[in-house]
Amino acid sequence: MIPTYEYDIHLPARRDPGKAYPTIFTLHGKGSNERNMQGLVAPLSGEFIIVNIRGDLLLGTGYQYYELRGLGNPIRESFDRAVRQLEAFIQYATEKYPIDANKRYLLGFSQGAILSMTLALTMGEQLKGIVALNGYVPDFVKAEYPLQSVDKVSVFISHGEFDSVFPVQIGKDNAEYFNKLTPRFAFKIYPSDHGVTVDNQRDFIAWLLQDAQLPTNKE
């Protein structure tokens, strides 16, 4: 299979031959690229395989995974295509690299968070968990997609209190929605705009290590 997406992959430097590793697939925001996500997850690169996925659609000097009619209004055909392609890419990477299929995580910001939450709902227990930073779940996903159980999927959602792109109420709505679907749930609000604070990064790193049952960094 030829992968749909360009990506960069970071394997643990001291990996053991024959061992499968927990893996984080990152999804960037609209107009960004895969390199901008590596800094968020770099502290985990000793324990996890990191796969940073670049959107396949050009947008200015960056990329996106799907097109929009307007803010918060994805073009349905483009969005559906992205979901299908990302599901296939995750399977491709799992077959190609020493990825533990029982410990696959998605971590996304903005458009990447939207897709991470959507993929949790479409892939269900094929994922161990997701980290969704400042996003939302499209109404058509909730109403029309064939949704899988996320009862055993771990979900960390965060949102900026002063988010000028997606108001904080959207984050609270995400929390209310997922809190009813899985007991493995965390939600936090940070005093920020549409971005990721140092505290936000520290918290999701600790959460991922704990959820994957890995030792906490001593640094």
From TrEMBL:
UniProt entry keywords in alphabetical sequence: Hydrolase
An annotated Gene Ontology molecular function: hydrolase activity
Pfam families (UniProt xref): Abhydrolase_2
Lineage, opening ranks: Bacteria, Bacillati, Bacillota, Bacilli, Bacillales
Keyword Nucleotide-binding in record: no
Domain Phospholipase/carboxylesterase/thioesterase: 63-197
Name of this protein: Alpha/beta hydrolase
Family, as annotated: Belongs to the AB hydrolase superfamily. AB hydrolase 2 family.
The keyword Hydrolase belongs to this UniProt entry's keyword annotation: yes
